[in-house]
Amino acid sequence: MLDVRRMQVLRAVVTGGSVTAAARTLGYTPSAVSQQIAALEKEAGIELLERVGRGVRPTEAGRLLTEYATLIGTHVAAAETALADLRAGRTGRITIHYFATVGAVLVAPALAALRREHPGVQVRLKLSDPRHPLSEVRDGQADIALVVRPDDRPSVDGLRFVHLLDVRYRAVLPKDHRLAAKPVLELSDLAEEQWVASESPGPCLDVLLDACGAAGFSPEFVVESQDYATAQGFAAAGLGIALVPESALENRRSATVVRRIRNPEPIRRIYAAVRESAPAQPALRAFLTALHDAASR
């Protein structure tokens, strides 16, 4: 097998026209250059240089290897530039798994910020099942996953959780509801109500069920909505009450009222899950920073 470093020595000899000139360029002794050329000729099984006066010129085999040495040098330089861009965060590739209800609130503004500041970073987004995102990160299918995770959940081997945001749930009631006049509701006030399910089965729904359990009841869901806008529509029509995260109440319906809840107040805690063993990626750090900025806003 040909030694790439010796091929670069050959290129220096051919470019300089002599062993002495190559030695000056490379910072070697002429003897060391001659030894490298001799070793390369042994590897190639053919002479690479011929003497011409006080200098040398390449044989046909020498010209061939010099051309390839030039190509290799170009590719190495390109690789060094690419690595420098990767280390600086100017390029990179990250895969992000997220669940639907944080798309507009966190992922979209964070991704927009990342593209402004690091336009060379490639991002692959995938909407994942919020019940099973951690195995995807642990197995390397994703670099980061956004998850809902209670504080009392045990740690997961190989994963690190970065807290991003706490989202409080609010009660959405029809305007003429018997509890509409109360500025703050006890969660137990809603025990006898019919509920509109605003969450699919999974960790987000678990937040509501756990809170209701702490208040001493299990909610009666009479309508399934699958999204917050639809849940508010059902509540406005008087079909039931809905618990909706604050972040989903920007376009509130005029036929409803929104009230705080306490004892307990349901809170959805959102984290970014990353592998503990993953090497430091500037692109990933930049996206986590962008997520924190989006959460703070």
* Number of extended strands: 12
Poorly predicted runs are none
Strand content: 25-35%
Proportion of helical residues: 40-55%
What CATH calls the topology of the largest domain is: D-Maltodextrin-Binding Protein, domain 2
Which word captures the global form? Answer: rod-shaped
Query: What is the highest CATH level, the class of the largest domain?
Result: Alpha Beta
Question: Oligomeric state of the chains?
Answer: single chain
Radius of gyration: 32 Å
The name of the CATH architecture of the largest domain is: 3-Layer(aba) Sandwich
Classification by helices and strands: alpha/beta
CATH superfamily of the largest domain: Periplasmic binding protein-like II
| H/E series | HHHEEHEHEHEEEEHEHEEEH
Give the rounded overall mean pLDDT.
89
Count of helix runs:
9
Overall structural domain count: 3
